[in-house]
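User: I'm putting together notes for a lab meeting next week and I want to include a structural view of one of the chains we've been expressing. I don't have a solved structure, so I'd like a prediction I can at least talk through. The sequence is below, exactly as it appears in our construct file.
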Amino acid sequence: TIERLGVSQYMYHEYNVREKITGCDAAKCECVLRSVFGLPCAHEMCVMSQNRRPFDLTDVHVFWRTLTVGDEEGVHGAHEDPKIPDALRLIDGSLEVIKKANPDQQMFYAHAIHNLIHPKSIEVEKHITR
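Assistant: Thanks for the context. Below is the predicted structure for the 130-residue chain, given as structure tokens.
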């Protein structure tokens, strides 16, 4: 899994192994790393390499650029009211984090929440080649 390999090792494998097989062909690549983990997939790395374009922070999903994952302020605050159920406290804390996020992050969270609540509404998007 990606947790065991680590992000940098996983991307190294994608570039040094998978990119040699798929080349810049998105159909061969199937873009699993991009769609599952929000990381550049083999064919994207191939295109970047051919264009001599280095990785940019925007090539990586915001999750991997977040310094704090988990106990953000407001999600597990020290002044919790025992009368409020844990689920509602978690939702309220998460909403506060979302409110502080930039508009792109807010839209990502909104889509993710919508797709969790309404799973049949998930649309398959055509992959955009950079």
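A couple of points you could mention at the meeting. The two ends are 27 Å apart (CA to CA). DSSP finds seven helices and no strands in the chain.

User: Perfect, that's what I needed.
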